[in-house]
Every structure is written in C-alpha cells, then in structure tokens.
Amino acid sequence: MKILIVIDQFEHSNNGTTISARRFAKGLQDAGNAVYVVSTGNQENEYKFNLKEMPLPPGISHLVKSQGMSFAIPNTEILEKAISSVDIVHFYMPFFISKAGLKICQKLNVPHTAAFHVQPENITYSIGLGTKTIVNDMIYTHYRDSFFNKFTHIHCPSNFIANELKNHGYTANLHVISNGVDDNFKYYSKEKLPEFKDKFVITMIGRYSNEKRQDILIDAVSKSKYANKIQLVLAGKGPKEEKYKKLGEKLENKPVLKFYHQEDLINLLKSTDLYVHSADAEIEAISCIEAFACGNVPIIADSPNSATRQFALIPQSLFEAGSSTSLAKKIDFWIENDDYRKEMEIKYSQSAERYRLKNSIIKMEEMFKDAIRECKKRE
C-alpha cells in the first residue's frame, strides 16, 4: 500500500504522538508499504512533503509548545499533490492541515482514516482546568462534530479511549490498536549504571507537564521510609523542568532530570528497580509498557482519566491518583518485598508481548484495507 501520514509535527520526537507516528511509519515501511508524510520540517526527500509552521500569539504558542506540539499551515497544492498519489491517508491530529486534507480526500474520493491521540485533558491540565468534566466534554464534542464524525474508521490506542469516544457519540468504527512497543524493549538482566551503584532506582518516563504529575512522585520519595537509598530518575523534558528540579532539592539524593534517546533509555531501564507512572491523564502511555517490557514492576496511578491502569496485574501496582502518601506506601512495599518484586518482573515482561509493535502494524494494515474496500464500494 501507498500510505500518507498527515501530522503537524514529525521530525522532532518531543511528544508521544510524534513518537508514535514515527514508530508506525517505520513499522509500516518495514512491512513492505510505501509511507509518505506531510508535516512541518526541513527533511527533503521523495517521501516527505514539507509545510510551514503556523505562527501563534504568545499565550497560545506557550500552551501548544508546552505539549511539545506545533501547527502546520495548510497548503492545498502540497496536500493535493500528496493525497492524489496514495492508496490511503491517515490523519493524526484534528487540526488545520487535517481538516484541509480531509476535504481533499472527500473531493478526490481517496480512502482516509484518523487516529485519536489528543486527549482533552492534555489541553485542560495545561490551563488549570483538568478536573473540570464539563470543559473536557466540550472538547470531546468539538473534536467529534468538527472532525472525527466525518470518518468511518478511527484508531484508538486503548479500550479506555474507545469507550470515551463511544460515550461522547462518536459514530466511526473504533479500532483498538496499541501504539506498540519496539522489540528492543525486552527483559534484560539487571545491570546498574556506575552512577546508580548501591541505589534503589525509581524511574518515570514522560514529559514534564501538569497531567504527568511528577510532583506527586517527588513528594512520595520524600515520604518513603527508604528515602536515603532511593535514586529518582525522571526521564523526559518539558515546561515543568525547573519546578521539578526545585522540588527535588528536598530529597536526600537529588533526582536526575534528563532526556534519554532509545539506547540510553534501555540502559536506564536495565538499572531501574521500580517504575512509577503517576500521570492523571493518558490515552495509553507507551513509556509504561517499555518499562515493564524490560522487566520493571510498575506502580500506576488509578486515575479515571488514564488508560495506564489497565496494565496493573495486581493491586500492589496501583496507587490512589494524586496521593503521594498512597504512592509512598506502595514504594515501600516493593522495596521490602524484593523476592516478590523479582517474581513479578518476569510476569510483567511477559505481559508486554501482547503490545508488540509488529502486532499493531498488522492491525493498522487491516484497518487501512477495510477503509479502502469501503471506498471502492461507494464508487
């Protein structure tokens, strides 16, 4: 198949959606498909169509950049050239270039599908309204009416988000397909990096943003009975970095805040004793799967706005969302039960196999083929 991915940002891996798009693009290529991309950027080749980045007012720009995102300026000529030469178009975001691209698909009768990656809470937490259900519902409704209900097939990374869409009146066929974990993330024997020798390493991977709640994790470590032996590592980057550095000053061992590329991330996960995912809002959280695929027992927030709690195999892997006291107790439990933790490391690693990228690629191809068949029937 000739597949076109339409996404505002593709070249820089600084948000989960972009990382997912890049992973799927490579996986689809490896499976024998020709994959083309329309996005902002400077990469010049036969598979990439470049658009200019949209300038935004300072206040809005700060909000967008805080999520590691940008918007592309729609260019009808470029979009039409890209869309007219492929078998299927897959849209990642419900924003300006996707809306323009959708109209061209409809005009040219080109099959098209969408992905749901922008959880309303990603926006509302950034402006202090994350817990306001009415505001989140309004965003779901806007997405639905302005974009998603014009599709017959939508990729949902989790059952959680598929149920949210059903509950908000989305009418498309909802394909639950994990964003997929790379085969390089697998069970390794523990091998501590020199700087973490003699420390109990707790890791969390994720953007430093309001909804990820790394502040809860920092506070929980300070409350642990074993705070003096814990080395906290917050892998990522984002607008809350300076705040979290300051919060971390109260810990006996200063936390490491650093962005890790894949090879270094795998080495970090080999050194990790316990993984925590404290986010209040997640559509899936591929970083959590990567962690337990490498044999790290997770402790996950039981937030009703997060799909990540689906990964917990036992109650000891869940804590009360927003409660550093609850999290501290779970951390202490796993430190005190070393043999049980090692037993569960194997079980968690085995449970990651169902989320392998190769399985997700097969399901994505099936969705694309369904959309193509439907389009041909309408001709």
Can you tell me about this structure?
By secondary structure, this protein is α/β, with parallel strands linked by helices. The protein has two domains: about 1-180 and about 355-379, Rossmann fold (3-Layer(aba) Sandwich), CATH 3.40.50.2000; about 195-355, Rossmann fold, CATH 3.40.50. The protein contains 14 helices and 13 strands. The chain has helices at about 15-30, 60-65, 75-85, 95-110, 120-125, 135-145, 160-165, 215-225, 240-245, 260-270, 285-295, 325-335, 340-350, 355-379, and strands at about 1-5, 35-40, 50, 90, 110-115, 155, 175, 200-205, 230-235, 255-260, 275, 300, 320. The strands form two sheets. A seven-stranded parallel beta sheet has the order 3-2-1-4-5-6-7, sandwiched between helices. A six-stranded parallel beta sheet has the order 10-9-8-11-12-13, with helices on both faces. α9 (about 240-245) links the parallel β9 (about 230-235) and β10. α1 (about 15-30) crosses α14 and α8 (about 215-225) packs across α12. The protein is globular. The model has no long low-confidence stretch (mean pLDDT about 90).
Throw out a few tags for this protein.
seven-stranded parallel β-sheet; Rossmann fold; globular; 13 strands; 14 helices; six-stranded parallel β-sheet; 379 residues; 15% strand; alpha/beta
How widely separated are the two ends? 19 Å
Secondary-structure element pattern, one letter each = EHEEHHEHEHHEHEEHEHEHEHEEHHH
CATH architecture of the largest domain: 3-Layer(aba) Sandwich
Instruction: Return the CATH topology of the largest domain.
Output: Rossmann fold
Strand order of the largest sheet: 3-2-1-4-5-6-7
What's the story with the biggest beta sheet? 7 strands, parallel
